[in-house]
Amino acid sequence: MTAQETSRVLVALATRLAAADEGQSGALWRLTQESRQLDANLVRLPADASVPGHVEAALDVLLVVVDGAGHLDDGVSLQELEPGVVAWLPKAAPRGLRAGPRGLAYLTVHRRRPGLTIGGRTAAAEEGGEAACALDRVCPACGRMRAEARAPFCSWCGEEVGAA
Questions:
Q1: Which uninterrupted H or E stretch holds 19?
Q2: CA dihedral 21, 48, 26, 109 (to 10 degrees)
Q3: Which of 9, 47, 61, 85 could be joined to 65 by an S-S link, Cβ 3.0–4.6 Å?
C-alpha cells in the first residue's frame, strides 16, 4: 500500500442524486482511483426507461438500488427493485432493467474490466456494426452503445465520455 492509498469516504450517493439535474440520467458518478481493483457506478434511469436484456460474459455485477423502483428481468421472471434491494447479476446470466414511474437509481460494483484485447470478429462486425447515425453513442473506451446519449459517463465501463 502506498502513502496515497487510504480508506476514505468517496461519495454520498443521496447527495449526488439530489445534486444532479432533473433530467440527467446515465452514470452520475464513478470510481476513478487509479490503483483500484473494482469499478463502481451510480446510474440513474429516467421514469419507464430500460436497459435492454443482455448477457455480460466477463463479469459478475452487484447492483444496489439507491432510489426509485423498477424491475430486474432475468429472462424468466421480473423481480421487484426498490431502495435497499441488493441484486447479484452473475456473469453469463441474462439481465435487463426497467425503471418504474419515478425512475430508478442504482449503484453497480464489479471487478475492474480487463484492458482491451485483440480478439476474434463479432457477429456485429461481420454485419457492419451499429448504424452511423448512432456513432455518437458509442463509448470510446469500451466500444459499447450508451443507453443515454447525454450521459457524462458510460454506464457499461464508467469512463467519462462527456455529454453528447
A1: helix 13-19
A2: 120
A3: 85
- Strand residue runs (E) in 56-93: 61-73, 78-81, 86-89
Report H helices in 25-159.
Answer: 123-127
Task: Please count the other Cβ atoms lying within 10 Å of the Cβ belonging to residue 156.
Answer: 22
What is the DSSP code (8-state) at residue 127? H
> Letter for the amino acid at 47?
A
Going by C-alpha positions, the residue among 29, 38, 35, 37 that lies closest to residue 10 is 29
What's the predicted TM-score (pTM) here? 0.68
Q: Extract the residue ranges of the chain whose pLDDT is less than 50.
A: 1, 121, 123-132, 164
State how far the Cα of 99 lies from the Cα of 47, in Å rounded to an integer. 6
| Residue 143 C-beta-side C-alpha neighbours within 13 Å | 10
C-alpha 51 chain-centroid distance? 9
The type of residue at 127 is E
Type of residue numbered 149: A
pLDDT digits (tens, 9 = 90+) for 114-137: 665 565 545 444 444 444 455 566
